[in-house]
């Protein structure tokens, strides 16, 4: 939506630019407005709304609304920004004053609770068992999910060897993926906004029979090909940026179950690592 507006901005009439400026200020708002409400907000006629959406290549205002809604679902911070003076907006939807700090902490707590209600304990145990028994464990993520995948590796490697992160600097996904087999396990973190490469890795892993655990968000559309061991986390927040506390809670729960399943071998590894920390003076 915003790319289309900027690409045609110089061609717009004065009233169309007036309307375009309102949309550009907060494109995510469009999904919640009717054409009449949007026209009133911009101080233009409803006919101007119709002309602008057609000029931008949309068949109707409803099609433009759907495009805005997809941007919101996909997690774009630009589409999640609230317009403080929009029509009918109250304290809950986006007043100029930001929510108090306590509200953010409360929302994070609620995100963890909502995620916990979705988690099947048997599936969590099955996933941890896969991580415990696999020849090697590989973790993969992109964008925000990179550090989450790295956190998972750091947790798992405390109690089992051969935990690797895709992809090392300078490598391609194909060079790493070619090394994975049916005796390995792949933990894929695909929180919204997922780049296409993550979807292709998921598809390739399925085709190659690589046992896969997927951690995704709970609200953006999921691709058709998802593994049985998929854990969906609540990531929506009171701010335009997503919160990942529930994702880390799921990873921590997997690590706790992994400690239990690895038993004496896991404890021996922790003990060896701690001994080396002391010998090397690292901590």
The gist of it:
This protein has 283 residues and is α/β, with parallel strands linked by helices.
Any overview of this molecule?
It is a single chain. The protein is of the alpha/beta class. The protein is 55% helix and 9% strand. The protein contains 13 helices and five strands. It has a five-stranded parallel β-sheet, with helices on both faces. β1, α10 and β2 form a beta-alpha-beta unit. α3 packs across α4 and α8 crosses α13. The longest helix has 36 residues. The radius of gyration is 23 Å and the shape is elongated. It starts with a helix and ends with a helix. The relative contact order is 0.11. About 5% of the residues have low confidence.
């Amino acid at each position: 939506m915003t790319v289309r507006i900027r690409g045609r901005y110089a061609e717009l009439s004065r009233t169309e630019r007036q309307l375009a400026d309102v949309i550009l200020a907060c494109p995510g708002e469009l999904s919640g407005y009717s054409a009449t409400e949007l026209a009133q907000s911009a101080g233009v006629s409803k006919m101007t709304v119709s002309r602008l959406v057609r000029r931008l290549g949309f068949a109707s205002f409803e099609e433009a609304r759907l495009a805005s809604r997809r941007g919101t679902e996909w997690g774009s911070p630009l589409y999640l920004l609230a317009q403080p003076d929009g029509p009918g907006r109250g304290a809950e939807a986006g007043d100029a004053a930001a929510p108090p700090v306590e509200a953010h902490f409360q929302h994070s707590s609620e995100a963890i609770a909502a995620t916990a209600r979705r988690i099947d304990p048997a599936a969590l145990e099955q996933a941890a068992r896969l991580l415990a028994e696999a020849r090697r464990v590989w973790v993969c993520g992109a964008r925000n999910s990179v550090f989450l995948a790295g956190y998972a590796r750091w947790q798992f490697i405390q109690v089992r060897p051969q935990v690797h992160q895709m992809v090392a600097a300078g490598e391609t996904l194909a060079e790493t993926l070619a090394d994975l087999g049916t005796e390995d396990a792949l933990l894929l973190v695909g929180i919204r906004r997922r780049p296409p490469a993550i979807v292709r890795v998921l598809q390739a892993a399925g085709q190659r029979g690589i046992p896969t655990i997927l951690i995704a968000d709970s609200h953006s559309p999921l691709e058709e090909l998802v593994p049985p061991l998929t854990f969906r986390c609540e990531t929506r927040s009171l701010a335009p940026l997503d919160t990942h506390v529930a994702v880390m809670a799921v990873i921590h729960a997997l690590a706790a179950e992994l400690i239990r399943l690895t038993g004496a071998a896991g404890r021996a590894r922790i003990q060896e690592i701690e001994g080396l920390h002391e010998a090397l003076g690292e901590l």
